[in-house]
Specification:
alpha+beta, 5-stranded antiparallel beta sheet, 7 strands, globular, binds zinc ion
């Protein structure tokens, strides 16, 4: 089921999300819905708070062409970051049509629980590394525009408020 994506500003996007205590059918359904919502958008990553669920769940698939590689990460945690940094032009499904260069560690090692309840660990590089950091930020109530200066952030927030008003009128 495709779930509606919250648009910034929204208090649910600023919350520290709760860890998932147990992999239940509900958690698996949430991950499946999030992947469907992400592919439909389309996007390469989505965090549970973006669909209004303040739990520590993210999904990603950074494969642009070829066999899809859907990933669902429960309680993801960055356990190592490279000193090397990289710049990517980031966007966010909760901040439509806004893109900005953001600097982050080029590689990160992440530990998480998969949908079978097993602990996994993997080192991410390239676009995957940027994406996983962006999505984990969401679980801590942080958006990519929080890395920008206050004036720029304010300008983007005003633009989004306007977009939300227009969408509300169109319904
Ligand atoms: Zn995002």
């Amino acid at each position: 089921m495709i779930r509606p994506i919250l648009i910034h500003p929204d208090p649910r996007l600023k919350k520290l999300c709760d860890p998932v205590a147990e992999i239940t059918a509900e958690v698996r359904q949430l991950a499946a819905d999030m992947l469907e919502t992400m592919y439909d958008a389309p996007g390469i990553g989505l965090a549970a708070p973006q669909v209004g669920v303040t739990k520590r769940v993210i999904v990603m698939d950074c494969i642009k062409e070829g066999t899809p590689e859907p990933m669902a990460l429960v309680n993801p945690e960055i356990i190592w970051s490279s000193e090397d940094q990289t710049v990517y032009e980031e966007g966010c499904l909760s901040i439509p049509d806004i893109y900005n260069d953001i600097t982050r560690p080029a590689e990160v090692k992440v530990r998480w629980t998969d949908l079978d309840g097993k602990q996994q660990e993997r080192q991410f590089a390239g676009i995957w590394a940027t994406c996983v950091q962006h999505e984990i930020d969401h679980l801590d109530g942080k958006l990519f525009i929080d890395y920008l200066g206050p004036l720029k952030r304010q300008m983007i927030t005003r633009k989004m408020e306007k977009l939300k008003r227009e969408r509300a009128r169109a319904v």
